[in-house]
Every structure is written in C-alpha cells, then in structure tokens.
Amino acid sequence: MVHINCKKRLLSAHGSMDLSADFSVSPGEFVSFFGPSGSGKTSILRMIAGLMNPDEGFIEIDGETWFDSLKKFNLVPQKRRVGFVFQDYALFPHMTVRENIRFACEAKNDFSFVDELLRVIHLKELENELPLKLSGGQKQRVALARALARKPKILLLDEPFSALDMEMRIQLQREVLDIYERFKTTTVFVSHDVSEVFKMSKRIFILEDGKIVRSGLPQEIFIENNLSGKFKFIGKIVDIVKDGFLNILVVQVDNNLIRVVATDDEARGLNIGNNVIVASKAFNPIIMKY
Does the pTM of the predicted model rise above 0.85? Predict the structure, then answer.
C-alpha cells in the first residue's frame, strides 16, 4: 500500500502555490493524476522519487517509510525502489539499449531478467544499438524497460507519450497496459490528456491548483450521461468495446468523454483515432465517419 500525505510550496506561472497531496494507492493499482500544466502533477512524482523534498508530511511505500518530516527522516533517492519514466527519455547516449537496461538492475549479472525485458518490450533486435539511432517510440520503450529493471515497488510515468505522434502514442499505450498486466507494478501515471487517463487508469485523481479536487473511476470522472434532446457534434474515438451484439464507442469532444452505442454496421470501418459525427434525433443517436 502507498500512503502519501505531503505539502510543498511551489512557484507556478501564476505565482506561489501550496501543493497538498493526500492519497493512497492499493498494491498493483494503476492510478493517474490529471489536470492542467502547473497544477503540481510532476511535483508529486518527484517527491515520491526523492528528487524533491516536501516541506512537511510523510511518504510510506509498502510499509517502508521514505519520508517523514516529524521524524526528520528522508530516504535518499538511490535507496528508493522507484522506476521513473520521464517525458524526455533520459537515456545514457554512450550506452547501448542492453547496457541502458542492465545499468538499472540491482544485480548487474541478472542477464535473464534483462533478456525478458528486451523480449517483452520488443527491443531484442535493437539491443546493441545506441539511443542516437532509435526513434522516439523506441527510446521510450528503452526508458520503460530500464525503469522496470529495478524491479520497483512503484512505477512513475511522467507524461511519457507527449512527445510522440498519435499513432505511436496509441501503440505505446497498449504496450504499457500489457506490461502492467504482466508485472502488476503499482503505477502512478501523469498526463493532461483526457483520452490517455481514461483509457489507462483504474482510478483518477483530478488536480487543480495543487489540490486533489476529485477522485474516482474514469467513467465517474469523465463520462457525461445526461445528454438529451437533439444534438450533433464532432469527436474523436478513443476506445471501442464490444458488448454482445453492440459496440460501445468512447468519443472525446474537447475535454469531455461520452459513450455511444453503435451497431455492427455503424461501427464497421471505425478505429481508435477516427473523427466521427455523432447526431441524435430525440434519444436515438446516429453515428457516421467524419
């Protein structure tokens, strides 16, 4: 179990801000922090990792204290079992893919685990390449494998897909979820992209001006269930779920997500990432590719 209760005075684009993070994460849970830039999301990850010290409070991971201001205890970052994936990859440019991953292993001769990570994250054919020769998506795979190589108690993902194009983002989202299902590492994900946190999270914390203002399941946080009357709008498909003879489309409209029921005929040819028109006469929506 992860228990965080920390406070930190931060400087934001709008002046000073008091960050207050009080939350818990169950073992093996995948949670996300969602909110605008400057709301304190990355600072929470940095405090967990020991890269930023809270002004007061405590951090406890699986019964082990990492920070306690009352006891004046602060575990150094090197001793915290954290895997941290940054937006900008942060790979060692002079090391090969394999060397980058092996460097993070506590047991430097744990070759079998390095081999497993190379296979799971589809890097085996690139293991002897330097980062300079890799694409953005490949670099992020290396960064993820290196984070997992520490066998962390908690995995921190700080907007890891923001520098990638949409096709690669969708692909890596699937791969990260596959890896999560395989290793079940407790994961805290940060993003200001509503479709990402909806798709990937088991639970979401909404952060505004340094405060957690709401938390809950993705459907509770984002889905609007009260649409009525006549309407027509354009949105982007972020998920498609088969439910018996019907298809549930999750469509992003601005920063809102709605669910639309589509028949097999309506859903034929539709894929995640497509723009669609959703129109309704009374209570029967009509959906067509845009």
Answer: no
